[in-house]
Amino acid sequence: MGTNMATDFSKAKHTVILSDIHLADAEPPHRYNPYWKRFKRPKYFVDKHFKSFLEYIAQRFNEPIELIFNGDIFDFDSVMALPQNPQIHVNPLEKLRGLSAEEAKSQFKIRVILNDHIIWVTALREFILNGHRVIFVIGNHDIELHWPAVQKELIDALQLPLDKRDQVRFCEWFYISNNDTLVEHGNQYDAYCLCQNPINPLIRKGLKSYVRLPFGNLAGRFMLNGMGLMNPHVDSSFIKASLFEYFVWYFKYVVRTQPFLVFTWLWGAIVTLIYSVGEGLLPSMTDPLTIGNRIEEIAVKSNSETKKVLALRELHVHPAHFSPLRILQELWLDRAIILALIVFASFQFFTVLNVFTQVSIWWFIGPCVLLTPVLVFYSKSIKSEVAKVQVSTFQHAPMAARITKVKRVVHGHTHHEIHTWNEDVEYLNTGTWSPAFEDVECTKPFGRKCFAIISESEPGKRTAQLYEWKEAGPVLISSERPPEHAPAEGQSA
Q1: 174: which strand partners?
Q2: Where are the chain's structural domains?
C-alpha cells in the first residue's frame, strides 16, 4: 500500500504496545478427539479482553493514542480453512496442512481470521474512529502482511471512512516511536524465524510469487498443523526436555487418537526440511530500478532514514536454513537418521550371520539394544537453540538503539515479558496474548497478557511501564528504572 502522509506519525505523547495475539480461524469441535486444537476454540479467544483493553486505554488518556501491534497479531500459518473458489487451486498438501503464502491465498486467510474475530475488528474500528492511530509491525507469523492486497483486506474489514484510513500503517520489521523508542518484533534476531529479506520478501517459483516463509513458520504449517495435541504458542508443548517426557505425553493423550503420530512427524519434518532449504536458497525478487524507492518507503513508514534501514538490516542474524545440520537437529531428523542406521547395521549383521548359519531373531534385536546408548548419548548432547532466542534479542538491543539513536527498545516474539536494562538501553518485551496453554486440556494458561505504556511524564520526557491485563483491569508489573538499578541480564524487573 502507498504511504499516506496526511496523518503525522512522527510524534507521540502516549504509545501503547502489545504483541503476539496470534489470531487465527476458529477450530470446530471434534466429536472423537475433544482435545484436538482445543486452544483454537472460540471460548479461548481474547477478543473480549481486547475490547475492554482498548476501552480502558482510551478512557485513561482521553487524548490521541499511538497503538503499536508489534508482530504476530495474526497467525496465518495455523489457518486450516480452505476456499471454495474454483479459481484458487488448492493442491493435496495444502488440503492437509493449510494454504501457501501466495497473494490470493493470503487474502483468503486474513478474511477468514477477521470474520472469526468480529469483536476484535469492531473494537479496533471504534478505537480508530475515535481519533487514535494504529501501527502494525510485521512479525514472522503474520509475515504475509507484506502483501499489499492483504493489508487492503484488513483496512476494508475495518470499514473506515476515507479520511481515517491513513491512521493505519504497516511497517516491514521496525518502527521508531517519538524518536525515543525502537519497536521491533524481534524475530530478525532468531535464525529460525527471521524474514530473510524484509526489504524484498518475495520469491518466485515457476510462474507464481510467494512470501518466503521462515523455517519456524514452515515447521508450524507442515508439522504442528497435523499434530493437533501440541500447542504451537508454547515451546514446551512440542520441545520436551527428554525422551521420557515424550513417552509420558504420548501414552497419556496421543495413543488413543493419533497412534501413528511418529509417521505424521516424520513426513512433516521431511517436507519442512525440503521447503526450508529449497525456498531459502531462492533469490529474492528485486528490481534494481526501484530498490532505492523501496528503502525510502520503509524509512518513511518507520519514522527513520535510509541509512538506519540499511544498518538495521545488517544487524540481522544468519538464517538457519543455510546450515541444514541445524535444521535436521531442530526437527529431530538427525536422531531419526541415527536410529535408521542402527536398525540397518543390526539387520545387516543378522542377515550376514544367516548366510553361514541359521540364527535367532535375537541376533538382530541384540545389536539394536547394544547400539541404542549411542542414540541416547547423542540426543542428550544436542540442545535446542530455540531457548537462546530471548538472549539473542536482548543482546542486540544496545546496537539497534545506537543505530536508531533511541534510548529504549521494545520486542515481542519470545512470549516472555520482561522490563530491564542492557547497558544504557531500556529493554521491554510485551510477552503474549496468544491462546497458550502448557497442557493439552487447556487448563494451565501460559504467559500473561502484557502490554507496555510509554507516556509523557513531564514535558519532553516519556517513561515506560509494563502492565498485565486482567479481567478486572490492568496490573502494573514494572516501571522505568535508572541503569544503575538495573537487574542482571535476563532477569525480569
Answers
A1: 184
A2: 14-327+389-485, 333-381
